[in-house]
Amino acid sequence: MTDKHQVIALCSVGSLGKYLCDELLAQGRYTFVVISRQVSPTLLCPPILIYAVKSNKGAFFEQRGIDVRPSDYSTDSVLRILNETNATTFISFNNSPDQTFVTVHCAFLEACRKSKNCKRFVTSEFAGNIDDFPLLPSFFRTSRVPFRKILEQQNDVEWTIFNNGWLMDYFLTEDKTYMPSIPDEFPVDPNNWKACIRGTGDQLQSFTSARDIAKALIMLLSAPEWVGYSCGRSFDVWRLTFLGAHNIYHWPMVVLQRNDRPMEKTYRSKEQIDHDTSLPPTAENLEALYLASVEEMMITESGACPREKTIRQRGKFFENLTFTTLEGLLLQTGSSRGLGEH
Questions:
Q1: Which of 10, 140, 225, 291 is the most interior residue, by most CB within 10 Å?
Q2: Strand (E) positions, the chain?
Q3: How far apart are CA 37 and CA 31, in angstroms?
């Protein structure tokens, strides 16, 4: 597909999706619309709907004059918006759990299938190496895994699964990024200056900045085709963060540990993590099971994108994109001083 009059529909835009909105506005190559459940009913004034709920997200859309359309996420509702806006590509950031994820994305996919022009679909994953670890993180088994099978069984809509490894932005304090703080999940908590080392602490992981993900998604829009990699499947799009300056440990001591500012550290062994992954799925265990599934990605290195495919697809889709290193991100955001430099 060429750039000719592409209209991009973004759905369930949250923290990561804000970066894509910013980059689409900055580049100005594509028209885009945001599909959201959270639109104030008092402000549904076509043709442009102002997203004005009392939240930071609402302010974000309102300040930028972004076209936000209300939807109940049913097929008919989404289909109406796709046809009204002449959307050509649908990008989902919806992170619903379990069967809700499948149900919602089936509605999105069916809307694309029935639409006049929207025949490209990016499903919401943004994880790691699902080629070699298709069942990790384990909480994907009841959401992403079954929907992948649905995608593979249809040919009406071209699709891709975009995987980027870990978000580099979690190394930043909350005032430096759109991403929320997740101190229990991410190994480093820059806001409270502490860390939890899982396993041996030296497993390789891929990291990509949220803004680079947004830029890469935009570059992908201009690719003439996504399909054709193997067995007729769509490309699983990966970022090269596995070699050189982009290949860092999930516990990057070289950047974060300063002699003048020691970091409080705790540890979680592989045995502890394995124990929690085998807990019965009762209500009281859900939080521990979720956390263990994230930790499992660390100790198995399934958060590291596969090297050969990363290199190949970087050359095919993202050749002109200079990816940000962790050191570069810290400098760009003025975070180096906060990490102990003077």
A1: 10
A2: 7-11, 31-36, 68-70, 89-92, 120-123, 158-162, 166-167, 188-189, 194-198, 204-208, 227-230, 233-234, 236-237, 247-249, 264-268
A3: 20
* DSSP H stretches of helix in 260-306: 270-277, 286-300
d(CA 181, CA 143): 24
The structure tokens listed for 248 are: 């860092």
Residues 6+ apart with CB under 8 A from 52: 39, 40, 43, 58, 62
Q: Give the single-character DSSP code of 258.
A: B
Round to whole Å and give the CA distance between 329 and 231.
38
Q: How far apart are CA 66 and CA 48, in angstroms?
A: 8
Which residues, in sequence order, are bridge partners of residue 35?
11, 69
Burial class (CB in 10 A: 0-12, 13-18, 19+), 324: buried
CA separation for the pair 124, 187 (Å, rounded): 23
Candidates 56, 54, 59, 67; CA nearest to 24 is 67
Residues 5-54 pLDDT 10s? 899 999 999 999 999 999 999 999 999 999 999 654 433 433 333 323 33
Hey, what are 293's tokens?
């599934």
Distance in angstroms (rounded) separating the CA atoms of residues 192 and 290: 22
Q: Tell me how far apart the alpha carbons of residues 284 and 274 are, in angstroms, rounded to a whole number.
A: 18
* The two structure tokens encoding residue 34: 């945001």
Work out the number of other CB atoms within 10 angstroms of the CB of residue 233: 16
Q: What is the pLDDT, as a whole number, of residue 239?
A: 30
Q: Which helix (H) or strand (E) holds 53?
A: none
Q: Which amino acid is at 170?
A: Y
Q: What is the mean pLDDT of residues 69-90?
A: 98
Which amino acid belongs to residue 200? T
Q: Is the peptide bond before 183 cis (omega within 30 degrees of 0)?
A: no
CA-CA distance, 136 to 132, in Å (whole number)? 9
How many Å apart are CA 230 and CA 208, to the nearest integer?
25
Separation CA 339–CA 190 (nearest Å)? 8
Question: Running DSSP on this structure, what letter comes out for residue 262?
Answer: -
